[in-house]
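anyone else get weird line breaks when pasting these?? whatever heres mine. first is seq + tokens for prot A
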Amino acid sequence: MTTDSLFSTCSTTKAFTAAAMSLAIDDSKSTETPLSWDTPIASILRDDFVLHSDYSTMHTTIEDALSHRSGLSTHDACISLANPRRSLREAVRNLRHLKMAYSPRTTFAYNNNMYMAISHLLEQIEGRSLGETLKNRIWSPLGMNDTYFSAQEVSEDPSLRPRLVRGYTWDSNTSSYIAEPRVNDNALTGAGAIVSSVLEYTKWLRALIYRTGPLSPEGHAEILKSRTIITDMNEIIQPPGPHHLYALGWFVASYHGEPLYWHSGSWPGFGIMVGFLPSKGFGFAMMGNTTNARHAQVAIYTHLLDQMFGPGPGPVLSPMPTENPKQSIVASETMDEAIKRIYPRLPDPIIPHSLPLPQYAGQYVHPAYGSITLALKDNYLRADLLDRVIPALLSFTHASGEFFLACYYQPKSIGSIAVYYSAEFRVGADASTTAVGLDLEPALGEKIWFERVGSI
């Protein structure tokens, strides 16, 4: 790999989305309907942007969405399970079916879906795709002529394909790396779609450090102004520091008393870390082709900062699942261990399921999470989800009564995912299943319910 190798830069895309929004706000100042960071999203996307409560719909602002304080928890599984060919508008319209976990503006909850909503908003304002807007308004002015907006498009271009990096995940069971599928989601856009290189990102960082165009001085100030206090950093790979905040597309930390702006990015097989310390004219862009690369990246850039400041506290390193439900390293947990962890107090003897197993098969649908078709295969209920954003399989193992253990996994020829969820079936008075619930969003404290719509 070299400095011009092309990586999926994942959530570091978010800073560009916030920057594009700042340009749109600047453009609107001389119009009859100027925009501001306090503009409610629904005032522009009247039909498309609807949240689970009327209050949240009418009061969620551009700033709320870009600073992860809307009250909507991650709901990343509704991205993983989605049809990769769905439109951005369709993805945004599905937000109305997602329950809110928090009161608005009270809790930092990292949320890719809200950045997709802002992407849709920008496309309506600009009258073109977000990729075109970023190219014309940010990348071209900065000379970033080797930056792109779709891993799939880059992989299909013979002139670019040789430089496109493939991602891998370490499998501790076999002591080998597993190749990961490429990012493939039409609607991901401003939440994490960019493909670029370390060399290209230096041009972006230089503009941020010295506050040059194409952003206005006001735009630079706004995107770096802290908006949300982060009270729990246990699940985030972070630089050392006593306080952590979030601006618009940037985390904010204090390093030896100086503001440090940074953001990580990950997708199965990719670990990205970008940031800058304006007071020292220092910036870093590090891109690795395994999610765990972020641990080394934090250690490297904090070491370099310490060379300027003198030794400081060591970095706090732990997983960051908000960007993807996958583990960085393939888990070695067995199915029996998972059942004991998820169901620690099962009755003895186990209660049998009330219906013959074939009667649990059928198609189950959630309006935002999509459909799951369960079929009986080798005496297990299984769903083929290989056509989704993250291609995978879903199998059910009986635990007790109507409770099952759901294993969401990829054959190692496809990828490395292996995650267990609690699952429960509802059985109606007519002795047939009516729904299946999966614990896909723990912040809600309840299962995501897929209603049965038919047999197979």
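and prot B, same format (seq, then tokens)
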Amino acid sequence: MKKFSFNKQSFLILLLPLGIILSQISTIFPNYIETFYSSFLYKIIANILSLITGFLPFSLAEIIIVSFSAFILWYVLKTIFNLFKGKNRRLEISKNFILNILAITGLVYFSFQLLWGFNYQRLTLDKVFQLNVRTSSSKELADLCKVLINNSNTIRARIKENQYGVMELPYNKKHILKTAQLGYDNASIKYPKLKGNYGTPKGILLSIPMCYTGITGFYFPFTNEANINMAEPDSFLPFTTAHEMAHQRGFAKEDEANYIAYIACIKHPDINFQYSGVLSALSYSFNALRKSDTEKYNALISTCSMAVLNDLKYNQDFWNQYSGPIEKINDKINDTYLKSQNQGLGTKSYGAMVDLLLAEYRK
């Protein structure tokens, strides 16, 4: 790697502590972040990036990630080779390597915060959507599950399935990506914050290898692309797509993106989206109920139709076959990342959407 000039390198390195400081300061002013960043500046940034990348039929994010990963690997191997080759210059080589890595980290981190990261500090969704989130009883949770079970059973009876009794989309999976916007168009009538079209979600070409990480999709702030693992079971694919589109709209927290995905799915004219949204909400609610009241959970899960149980079991079996060390490492990295963005529960915050579902149920 070509050496940076001292001034340029120092400037890029200083972006790292500057980004961290600004991120911490922003936690004190959620109202200002909501008004001036999330609802104004970020919208401009997202729309500009969408104009640049939205028309591409492939994921630019996937290309960037693979290329950047290959570049970093090459640079590390080259540095190791130079350390063995230039024994008299090891201190200088090591110093340049560390400074260059810090400079790259500073640039990437600061850009991440500016392009999207400050959305973690915006007002919480219960305030934005005016939902009364509070501690709920296990009875309220069980009642919510009953509603979701009834909806799941009713909708599932009209859904196409394969020879094994598992949900099967009646069209190519790419149709999900092309039509997901319709759910947001309808949801934005009640929730104006969800307005906007930020480009069609992109299917990942390396979806099968991606399964080993346990990742169903990801949002890439540098291109404003919602990237979807197309190998995921059909029953949860629409929900995942809507989830990543929630991130496009500036809702960074995972539990909030899950709730928004649920809303966008049940408001969608396609029954397959509706089922995916309700089934996902039921899955999260069941997980919460199982931890709080096992007896009620066992009683209620028996009221699910065999078709719904087939879909839930198939999804579990699908991900179990890819479970391993890569998934565990990625889960640890993701957990650390979420906590660094002031999501104190880490990966456990994925289940916090149940609080929002309960607030909506009470409302």
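btw re prot B: The chain has a mean pLDDT of 90. Residues 138 and 293 are 7 Å apart (CA to CA).
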